[in-house]
Structures are given as structure tokens and as C-alpha cells.
């Protein structure tokens, strides 16, 4: 019966009793323990804030001249220059490069199409963050109202207890 509730395009694994979402792209790899898909290229998790072009080249899986070309095409990639004059990329740049590489190499977008799709994704993220902010504001207001209600009920309950102790139990 559970297998009938798999998401559209997803599958149900009876051995693990888990739903597996559809594969985002052919190159993605299934994580057997979580039953979720992982990107084919690992994101940096070494705690560094900045990466040199050679390091980024290895992380992304493209040559440094490709990264320099993508810098000229995608305005979101803005490496800074170190004191020695070398390019250094922030984690945000590396994440953007991962997405760009995926769009170009896996989903086979052209440069123009990848730019358009990247901007659409940014817009989707901004909209979802806006919705999240609105939900948070609504939740904050609701929590404040609940706190006031609890204080009012608590105060009246406390007053009732104090009166019973002073006057005695009400029969």
C-alpha cells in the first residue's frame, strides 16, 4: 500500500522501506543510506573561505581557462584578487560554478540558456525566501498573541489559586 504513495516519477524501495525521488540528472549518484541523490561533484567542506583557481578547477572538473571564460559570461561569478594578484573564489562563487557546470555539461544548456536558467533559479530562490519571511512574520505574530494569552490565562489562574489559599476552598 505504501508504494502507491511514491511521488511522481519516484520509486519505492521495499528493502529499505523508503521512497526514492526521481533522479535530477543522469550523472547524479544515489546515497544508499539517505535514499537521496547527490550531485556528481562534491562541494567543498573543508572550512576554507577562499579557493585559488587551481583548486576550484579540480573541484568543478574543468580547466582554469574555462573558469576564466565563465567569469566573463556569468556576472554572478566575481572572484577577488589576492595580494599576490591571483584569483581567489569564495564559497558562493564555487557553488555558482557548480550550478553553471551542471547546467552546461549535464543538462546541456547553451551559455545563453544557462544564463537564463540560472537567473530563473535565482528568482525562484528569492521568491521562496520572501514567502518564508512572510511565514516567519506571521508565526512571530501568532506566537506573540499566544504568549499574551498564556500570560492572561496564567495570571487569572494564579489569582484564582491565591484566592483559594487565602479564603479557603470554594465549595
Describe the model:
The protein has 171 residues and is of the alpha+beta class. It is built from four helices and seven strands. The protein has a three-stranded antiparallel β-sheet with strand order 5-7-6. Strands 1-2 form a two-stranded antiparallel sheet. Helix 3 crosses helix 4. The N and C termini lie far apart (56 Å). The model has no long low-confidence stretch (mean pLDDT 79).
Tell me, rounded to a whole number, the average pLDDT.
Answer: 79
Q: Which spans have pLDDT < 50 for at least 5 consecutive residues?
A: none
What is the radius of gyration computed over CA atoms, rounded to a whole number of angstroms? Answer: 27 Å
Residues in β-strands, percent: 5-15%
Separate helix tally: 4
Q: What does the main sheet amount to?
A: 3 strands, antiparallel
Report the order of strands and helices: EEEEEHHEEHH
